[in-house]
């Protein structure tokens, strides 16, 4: 086999050199994309040295649509974050990856050394697996670990143990502790007993949102704050029917409140994460749902887009509900009628774009579940045969045995948006 000439060898060497340097450049590019440095500076979160404003939602709804609203961030709770990290990267979003810290109210025993070591090892494996993902923003350490405890002392060392591990294993991404509101001293306890936490997360709803940040500051928190769950009204805050059924605002009323809360929080310079970008049964199928199960969106999306400088999907407007009322008693907040009789409800709904509206009526049993901390609930039994007559201006309900129920209406515009309302009623 003939020997290569010196020139050929030099050419081969130059070719190998080009591949070598190209490989180094590629590796450097990949490294730069993977190793974005997220830091905390005063009350701000910095992504590669630039201010990063946390705004977004938690849930499993479509991320491209969320990004269109002007969101920057999606939050998870503790499931394997791989799929949502990949989806978020494609959508141009960052992820607050939740690390689920066992809750004592659910049986987590922090006196059990085996449990503690197993949990820490599992969470460390997750951090090691995803710490270099380019969509990772920070780690959410637990969610309301302190809730419903007469003695919350086990919660704080549990949070600190995980946060300290994360700081050691992944110093490039901050740690955030998530509390259910501030309480009278919960933030103080977090500061004193979990010093490895760098960002304060607060789950807060309704008018409590106006003062959540200032109450946290009053307890001594000086770093960044993210409202990690926010909504127009928690069911625990709502007025109730005599039998304990809380009154849910219509989607229009929720959007009005959401606009006010997002505006107030913008003035406080805190991050905002809406709950829930998807659908979830909690008291009702619509209470906290920002989307219907089929992906149809509600006016809350417009409120988010207005606050975040984005656009509503397809630049459409959702229908608005003026009222859902008891037909023969317009001021009544609930309905009651005897078994064998019927109830009648009236509806006023409009569409800002003039779209033709379709009203879909349904009846469900009143949920008996009153879960804590968003624990799973089964959907109540539905009674489709009870809707005897319905249309865009009202419905008549009959044929139900004695019991407690809700009438629901969804008003669709045919362009991917809807409005919702419901009212509790009793058949005696």
TrEMBL record:
Q: Which positions, given as ranges, span the membrane?
A: none
| Key word Hydrolase present | yes
Q: Which UniProt keywords apply?
A: Hydrolase
List, alphabetically, the SUPFAM superfamilies matched.
Answer: (Trans)glycosidases
Gene3D superfamilies documented for this protein: Glycosidases
Any Pfam family from its record, for instance, is: Glyco_hydro_2_C
Output one GO BP term.
carbohydrate metabolic process
Domain of life, per lineage: Bacteria
Q: Domain Glycoside hydrolase family 2 catalytic spans what residues?
A: 118-192
For this protein, what is any one GO molecular function term? hydrolase activity, hydrolyzing O-glycosyl compounds
User: What is the name of this protein?
Assistant: Glycosyl hydrolase family 2 protein
- Species this protein is from: Ancylobacter novellus (strain ATCC 8093 / DSM 506 / JCM 20403 / CCM 1077 / IAM 12100 / NBRC 12443 / NCIMB 10456) (Starkeya novella)
């Amino acid at each position: 086999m003939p020997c290569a000439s010196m020139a050929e060898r030099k050419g081969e060497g130059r070719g190998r050199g080009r591949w070598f340097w190209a490989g180094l450049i590629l590796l450097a590019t990949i490294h730069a994309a993977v190793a974005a440095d997220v830091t905390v500076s005063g009350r701000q979160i910095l992504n590669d040295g630039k201010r990063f404003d946390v705004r977004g939602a938690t849930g499993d709804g479509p991320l491209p649509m969320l990004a269109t609203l002007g969101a920057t961030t999606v939050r998870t709770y503790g499931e394997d974050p791989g799929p949502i990290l990949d989806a978020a990267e494609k959508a141009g979003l960052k992820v607050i990856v939740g690390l689920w810290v066992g809750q004592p109210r659910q049986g987590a025993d922090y006196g059990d050394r085996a449990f503690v070591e197993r949990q820490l090892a599992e969470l460390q494996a997750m951090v090691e697996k995803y710490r270099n993902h380019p969509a990772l923003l920070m780690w959410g350490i637990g969610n309301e670990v302190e809730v419903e405890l007469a003695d919350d002392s086990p919660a704080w060392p549990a949070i600190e143990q995980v946060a300290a591990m994360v700081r050691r294993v992944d110093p490039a991404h901050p740690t955030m502790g998530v509390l259910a509101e501030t309480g009278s001293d919960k933030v103080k306890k977090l500061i004193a007993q979990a010093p490895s936490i760098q960002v304060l997360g607060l789950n807060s709803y309704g008018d409590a949102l106006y003062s959540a940040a200032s109450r946290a500051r009053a307890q001594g928190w000086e770093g960044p704050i993210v409202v990690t769950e926010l909504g127009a009204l928690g069911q625990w805050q709502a007025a109730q029917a005599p039998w304990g059924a809380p009154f849910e605002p219509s989607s229009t009323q929720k959007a009005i409140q959401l606009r006010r809360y997002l505006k107030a929080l913008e003035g406080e310079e805190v991050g905002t994460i809406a709950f829930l970008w998807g659908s979830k049964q909690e008291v009702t199928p619509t209470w906290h749902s920002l989307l219907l199960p089929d992906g149809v969106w509600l006016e809350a999306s417009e409120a988010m887009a207005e606050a975040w400088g984005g656009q509503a999907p397809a630049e459409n407007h959702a229908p608005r509900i003026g009222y859902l009322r008891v037909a023969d008693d317009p001021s009544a907040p609930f309905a009651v009628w005897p078994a064998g009789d019927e109830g009648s409800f009236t509806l006023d709904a409009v569409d800002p774009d003039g779209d033709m509206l379709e009203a879909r009526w349904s009846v469900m049993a009143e949920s008996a579940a009153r879960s804590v901390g968003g624990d799973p609930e089964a959907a109540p039994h539905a009674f489709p045969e009870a809707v005897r007559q319905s249309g865009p201006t009202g419905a008549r309900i009959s044929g139900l045995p004695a019991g407690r129920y809700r009438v629901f209406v969804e008003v669709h515009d045919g362009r991917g948006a809807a409005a919702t309302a419901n009212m509790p009623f009793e058949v005696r």
